[in-house]
Amino acid sequence: MIRVMNREDFKSFWPVFSRVVSARETYAFEPEITLEQAYHLWCELPLKSYVYIDNGEVLGSYYIKPNAAGPGNHVCNCGYMVAEQARGKGIARALCEHSQQQATEFGFKAMQYNSVVSVNEVAVKLWQKLGFEIVGRVPKAYRHARLGFVDTFVMYKWLGTSDD
């Protein structure tokens, strides 16, 4: 089940968030981030945040927000995290598909991922299967914990109709 995330959900999600960020393999968030800072970043700054729950266990989450202001506010940005034990079970796909539906309902015409770590091959392949294109490469933009400096991709998908 995917639904809007609340503070209690985030507390249950915190171990997932903390592990993902401290691994320094996919997110450019401060590894020493506190629970309160993380809640603010993931749940208060975005337009909405959602949680994926199965049998009472929080297995993943995403946020959605405008990627830019003013004339660029028709493009949204999302971030996704899935618990390690739940990876490979279609949860990231479900979250991404849900986020695209929500984006359309919120009136967004496109979705852009600003910094997909190039060596995160599972995510890159999934986003491509779901219609996202790599529209840019930023050389050595991410300091990976194991691999050192690696590239990031800008990925994009138009959500509007051909008439837009």
Trace the largest sheet across and list its strands.
Answer: 1-2-3-4-5-7-6
Q: Residue ranges: pLDDT <50 for 5 or more in a row?
A: none
CATH superfamily: Gcn5-related N-acetyltransferase (GNAT)
Distance between the amino and carboxyl termini: 32 Å
If helices are DSSP runs of H or I spanning 4 or more residues, what is the number of helices? Answer: 4
Radius of gyration: 15 Å
CATH class: Alpha Beta
Structural class: alpha+beta
Number of strands: 7
Order of helices and strands: EHHEEEHEHEE
What quaternary form is this? single chain
Concise overview:
By secondary structure, this protein is α+β, with helices and mostly antiparallel strands. It contains four helices and seven strands.
Top keywords for this entry?
36% strand, Aminopeptidase, seven-stranded mixed beta sheet, 4 helices, 164 residues, globular, alpha+beta, 31% helix
What does this 3D model show about the protein?
This protein is an alpha+beta fold and 164 residues long. It has a single domain, classed as Gcn5-related N-acetyltransferase (GNAT) (Aminopeptidase), CATH 3.40.630.30. The protein contains 4 helices and 7 strands; from the N terminus they run E-H-H-E-E-E-H-E-H-E-E. It has a 7-stranded mixed β-sheet with strand order 1-2-3-4-5-7-6, sandwiched between helices. A hairpin with an 8-residue loop joins strand 3 and strand 4. Helix 1 crosses helix 2. GO terms for molecular function: acyltransferase activity, transferring groups other than amino-acyl groups. Keywords: Transferase.
